[in-house]
Please model this.
Amino acid sequence: RVIRNLNGTAPGMWFEQGGKIFVSMPGVPFEMMSMMEHGVLPLLREKLKLPFIYHKTILTQGVGESILAEKIEAWEDSLAALQIKLAYLPSTGMVRLRLSSSGHDEAVVKHHVHQKVAEVLPLIGTHIFGYDDDTLEQVLGHLLLEQRATISTAESCTGGYLAHRITSVAGSSAYFLGSIVSYANEVKTTELGVPADLIAKHGAVSEEVVSVMAKNCREKFQTTYAIAISGIAGPGGGSEEKPVGTIFMAVASATEIRTHKVQYGGNRERNIQYAALSALFLLRKMILNLE
Model:
């Protein structure tokens, strides 16, 4: 039996012999995955009585895996009674908590998982920013649209990556106005109005400088909020006082400036990604008035 390939020219093949089923498919991932979803799995469901398998992923930011595990230890222990398994899935700047369960009654399986999701909210709710396939920039985009608010960015060590994350969301032109990549100190001074003596006194990588960057960026673009980042992405450029991975960020509104310092490792790419996600999370906390 032929399995249609909706994304390519090589078909898949379904064989049955001796009570066994064999399926061959192309190795190209996006072709194979589509064929599994639209061709193979529906046929398997017709042939076999398969259990319903359900996954629900809780997305967290701003807390490490070990601390997260301590906060939800008792809740995690309670999952076994409902035959729910929990997987910790750390990735750049976040930890995903994936709950998995199966059974022949879809409604019961989903009810038990959703019940447990509701129970964990009081424990780590401030760290949860979304579920399943949500991204932090999508969640923030929805918040900004709800508020009819706008955002601008001033970036040093992230080199425009923060703006890229924000504008990767379709429709972001409704709330994102622009960015200044002030990589050089001279640009921080000429374009963002950071006093040269402030940089000389505290250094470009400092709470004082990012605070002014965020404040003046918001005023320059006339946006509701502004984010500023300055740090040492590495692998060189660090010092004993400010080692590689030291990054300061600030979020400004018309009435408030919030700052945050992080200390990551020596990997340049990860430092840039971590910094952008941490800054987006800081903005989310300001919008929602979370501590």
The longest helix spans residues 268-287. The chain has ten helices and twelve strands. The mean pLDDT is 96. The radius of gyration is 24 Å.
